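User: I've been trying to design a sequence by hand for this structure and keep getting stuck. Would you show me what you'd pick, starting by listing the structure so we're on the same page?

Assistant: Good idea, let's start from the same input. This is the structure you sent:
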């Protein structure tokens, strides 16, 4: 547990592991939810802090996305559907990207996406990032049953012929 507490301190979490466990037990949070949250914290995918005088726990997630726009047609690259055994077919509208590690810079994360998931853009086309936009929004996480603040940074790029 000492390792997990050190990770919490590194992530500027305002609670100790003991306080986190006590809060989750007091609020009757199932152990599988705790396990998932612990895994996400250890992997650096979120931060936690107590809010409202310590009565609520809030999760923060940094999300990076790449908006690829074709110069000639104005078309945008996006995932429009997905499939999983648990949920089956589901329509969606997602830009390439995802949750970045809290210690990773946004630029490094997007470069990793370009060099792995979108290598074809980098190798076969002229692509230029022209700017970024950032927005913050909150919603309740169905998975963890707590308020989550998402900080989303979108890199806007043009794909030339």
């Amino acid at each position: 547990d000492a390792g997990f507490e050190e990770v919490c301190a590194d992530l500027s979490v305002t609670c100790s592991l003991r306080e986190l466990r006590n809060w989750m037990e007091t609020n009757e949070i199932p152990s599988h939810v705790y396990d998932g949250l612990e895994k996400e914290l250890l992997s650096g995918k979120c931060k936690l802090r107590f809010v409202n005088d310590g009565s609520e726990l809030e999760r923060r997630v940094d999300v990076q996305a790449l908006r690829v726009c074709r110069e000639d047609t104005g078309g945008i690259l996006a995932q429009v559907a997905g499939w999983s055994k648990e949920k089956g077919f589901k329509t969606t509208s997602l830009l390439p990207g995802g949750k970045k590690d809290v210690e990773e810079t946004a630029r490094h994360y997007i470069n990793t996406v370009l060099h792995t998931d979108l290598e074809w853009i980098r190798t076969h086309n002229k692509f230029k990032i022209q700017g970024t936009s950032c927005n913050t929004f909150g919603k309740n996480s169905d998975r963890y049953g707590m308020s989550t603040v998402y900080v989303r940074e979108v890199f806007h790029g043009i794909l030339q012929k």
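That's my pick for every position. To get oriented when you compare it with your attempt: The chain has five helices and seven strands. The longest strand covers residues 126-141.
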